[in-house]
Amino acid sequence: MTDHAVCMAAGVRDGLRTAQYYVRDMSHADATETAQPTVLSRGVGWAARLADWLLSRAADLSIRIFLPSWRNLPSPFAPHMMEEVTRAIGENRLAMTSLFTAYFFRATRHILDRCAEPPFLVLEHRIDAARRLLAERNIESPSRVTVLGEVLLALAETRAIARIGKAKTGYAFLDGTDPNIAVMATACLALLLAEEGKPIETLDEDEFFAIAGALIAPRLPAMGQAIKQRDAAALASELAQVRELY
User: Fold this and answer.
1) How many domains in the chain?
2) Which in 37, 139, 238, 243 has the greatest CB count within 10 A?
3) Helices (H), 29-178
């Protein structure tokens, strides 16, 4: 029963995110380089920008009033975050999303903010679906890399990234691969590299995710093949090899 309630709560939030995604997409209706925008396109663009502003302000206000801690999402630099995230696989929380879901949702947004043009759409309930699948599989293992192989397989299969914009300069590999594999592998690798806290004091989170993404890019074809074969052990091996390069 709790599983269904958690899924419904995430689904409602995702419904609002989906609405805002399409509103933001329509806000560019009057942005044309080849022809003069029409009265209709200007009206649609203006209305969409107004709707986007209202949705953003409503979300900010509701969070500030009802649950100010909602956006205090976890950082991979926090000590022992790897253990905390994997321990949260079995959590069902209505008041606030589980640490597992929060970490991968936040990491995905950070990576896409850096690598892709907006708008993009990340669905929280699909990340939480991966968490529930992992809870059913009972993936406990003394090896962090083995656990992350299972986690990456589940996240890639549930496909939380529903829409993505054009890749920014320097991240062209996103156009040639499944972004669900590339982004989730980067998030898993960042968690693995930072398992004992921030590794290099001069890096911020965005730079750290960028380094993790650069390390993972050459391994994406092999990871994609492992995911097709549903081979979590092969994914764990790929992550371990990349860790050795850091």
Assistant:
1) 2
2) 238
3) 39-66, 81-87, 99-115, 124-137, 144-158
